[in-house]
Amino acid sequence: MLNKIRKSHPQKSTPKKLAFTFLALLAGFGLAILTELFSGMSARVLPQWLESVNIRNLFATLMPWALGTLIISLFSRTPIRAAINVFTFSCGLILGCCVYLGVFVHILPDWSHLSYIVILTAISPLIAAVCWYGRGVGTVAGFVAAFILAYWFLQAFHFTPTFQGFGVNFTYGVLPLVFLAAAIGMLWRKPLQILFSTIGGFLIAYIYILLPFSIPYV
After folding, report:
1. What is the DSSP string of 102-133?
2. What proportions of the chain, in percent to the nearest 5, are helix, strand and coil?
3. The pTM is what?
4. What count of Cα atoms within 13 Å lies in the side-chain half-sphere of residue 184?
């Protein structure tokens, strides 16, 4: 039944599987180092065009992790490989953060900051396996893609119950809009399906704002 949503294409070569998993680990490690470097940089050190998009504050959020997770999930050959590679990617992120802070800053990681990554790492295999089907075809894939896009709509736009304050969220510059456009491009399968997913993602984001209780999202 799941193959009707998106058909798996397992990689038969074990060395290639290990190579991709190792690359995911390196990508997570590199992202963590980059995040810590940006967070410690002065605004005067960065080029003007990077400072104009508020890249230092953006790397302090989980958006880069979310984008990396989405890329690895969608372009893995099977949902199992997506789960393994995303989990490895997230572990690399934790490892990179601990190594940078321990070796270069000589302090222990702030648990209040790291705990979010640890929790997300624990559930990341499930997230990845579900996201993998977002690049499939049919109604189920369309709904999965809509929930993925809802996250990026919440990052890129201000939502208010009455739409009076609706508009682009420039807190982190234009990069959330770029990430939203990238997500739409990666999830594109059929014109009508991506239109359904985009409209659905927008509506899900709006419904989230209308909820009488708060469900945390990152």
Report:
1. IIII-S---HHHHHHHHHHHHHHHHHHHHHHG
2. 70, 0, 25
3. 0.88
4. 20
